[in-house]
Design goal:
GO terms for molecular function: heme binding; indoleamine 2,3-dioxygenase activity; metal ion binding. Keywords: Heme, Iron, Metal-binding. One of its GO terms (biological process) is L-tryptophan catabolic process to kynurenine. One of its GO terms (cellular component) is cytoplasm. The protein has 17 helices and five strands. It is an all-alpha fold. It has a single domain, classed as Up-down Bundle (Methane Monooxygenase Hydroxylase, Chain G, domain 1), CATH 1.20.58.480. Strand 4 and strand 5 form a beta hairpin. Helix 8 packs antiparallel against helix 10. It is globular, with a radius of gyration of 22 Å. Bound molecules: protoporphyrin IX containing FE. The site of protoporphyrin IX containing FE (HEM) has 25 residues, from helix 8, helix 16 and helix 17.
Length: 422
């Protein structure tokens, strides 16, 4: 952590803004910052990357994507001139890697062998930026954002060319932006909780109310997902590109033309990689148990985050605990009923968010999966279902990150009850 958590030279606000900056997090937009504000490269030799990415949906449908990438010239990221350009390249090439693997899955087999003109620069960029290989929630949602001079929002790159995909990405990002205030308020509360003066209780209480209010807004934004995303388009057209590579038992080969071509597993993109909800769990004292496998799930999702965000989640564990502070007020018989109620209310709003998320998952994953299985009589011929269904033959839908959906999502909700006080 850049500044020591007990450093009292600045007030909480300044201290927190400085700290967030070190992890590529913004006090205004939370984890949804640090992407790219450019959509083109200074050096015209990168044109093949831009042209292929902007034409991605057409190249997929005309079945020319793979041959186009195979014939790319070798371009080195050393010619990229700024961090912004590196990030733009990461967004474009990451989408192209996933498209290369999963293009036209209904008719063609996946192709888990990324050719050198794409593999080599992409591996270098990923190492340089310390970001997940392939796509991740940051590259499809958090950073995949453009704002034109008329104030119209859009995405840098997409697989399907549909407005549904743009809506999916922008809505996911809006959930994150709506939660930025919850993040900063909870961080401030953790910092204030280290103090012992008599204003502390009132201050923590005020901040917990802000946490609850902001999380309520996350839910409002999440529920707007249905206003522009058709479940069939999401499930059948977009989701096949978002999946991890776990359906490919030997992983994905990145051809580098060196002696050994390395094999990798790609994590895909899922809201489970949202650092916001992991951060709030930590700051509010919600624990996910090892025995249930949920602690491992939470850890595994961090491999799908930019390194700064994952490091932030490690580092905030040492901050003073808001929950312990509230508990101590109860022990000291400080008339803490209102504080306890406010703390519980913040947890309850987070739980309500998770209730709404389960509804969203039902609408966009479970229902279309059920319809497909019913139409097929079983799921064996379901295009794109390899990553969505358990190899054991279980028909329980699995998430894009590959989890047994319901036991996981319900368990994450149950864990919130344990954190309540009183
Ligand atoms: C169409 C919209 C969405 C669908 C279908 C969906 C689906 C899923 C699925 C299947 C999982 C299980 C993990 C896995 O991928 O294996 C999951 C987990 C999760 N998703 Fe989403 N998701 C959606 C939108 C979002 C958004 C917008 C966010 C937040 C910005 C989000 C946050 C989370 C979180 C935090 C988890 C981890 C479980 C938890 O903490 O309760 N999801 N989601």
């Amino acid at each position: 952590m850049a500044a020591h958590p007990h450093d009292h030279h600045h007030g909480p606000l300044l201290y927190i803004n400085q700290m967030l900056d070190c992890y590529d997090i913004s006090p205004i937009n939370g984890f949804a910052c640090g992407g790219t504000s450019i959509t083109t490269f200074a050096d015209p030799s990168f044109k093949p990357w831009l042209q292929t990415a902007s034409n991605l949906p057409n190249l997929i449908s005309s079945k020319k994507l793979r041959s186009t990438i195979d014939s790319w010239p070798h371009l080195s990221p050393e010619q990229l001139v700024s961090l912004e350009e590196y990030r733009l390249a990461y967004l474009l090439l990451g989408h192209l890697v996933h498209a290369y693997i999963w293009a036209n899955l209904a008719e063609e087999s996946p192709c888990p062998r990324i050719p050198a003109p794409l593999a080599r620069p992409f591996l270098e960029i990923v190492n340089e930026l310390e970001v997940p290989l392939g796509i991740c929630f940051a590259s499809t949602a958090l950073w995949n954002y453009t704002l034109d001079s008329e104030g119209k929002e859009g995405c840098v790159v997409g697989f399907t060319g549909t407005s549904d995909e743009v809506h999916f990405n922008l809505t996911s990002r809006r959930v994150e932006v709506a939660g930025a205030e919850a993040l900063t308020a909870a961080l401030k509360a953790a910092r204030v909780a280290a103090r012992t003066d008599k204003e502390t209780v009132a201050e923590v209480q005020k901040l917990l109310k802000q946490v609850a209010q902001s999380l309520g807004q996350c839910k409002v934004e999440l529920l707007k997902m249905k206003d522009g995303l058709d479940p069939a388009i999401f499930y059948h057209r977009l989701r096949p590109y978002l999946v991890s590579s776990q359906a490919l038992p030997d992983g994905v080969v990145f051809v580098t033309d060196t002696d050994a071509d390395d094999r990798y597993q790609l994590g895909g993109s899922t809201g489970g990689q949202s650092s916001l909800f992991q951060a709030l769990d930590i700051l509010l004292g919600v624990q996910h148990s090892d025995a249930s496998g949920r602690a491992q799930f939470v850890q595994s999702m961090r491999r799908g985050m930019p390194s700064g965000h994952a490091r932030f989640l490690e580092d905030i564990r040492v901050l003073p605990s808001i929950r312990t502070f509230v508990q101590n007020q109860v022990k000291a018989e400080n008339g803490a009923e209102e504080l306890v109620a406010t703390f519980n209310a913040a947890l309850d709003v987070l739980k309500t968010y998770r209730d709404s998320h389960v509804q969203v998952v039902t609408l966009f994953v479970v229902t279309p999966a059920g319809k497909t299985a019913a139409a097929d009589g079983n799921n064996a011929n379901n295009p794109g279902s390899t990553a969505n269904f358990d190899e054991s033959g279980s028909t329980e839908p699995r998430g894009t990150g590959g989890s047994e959906l319901f036991s996981l999502l319900k368990g994450m909700r149950e864990d919130m009850k344990e954190a309540r006080l009183g």
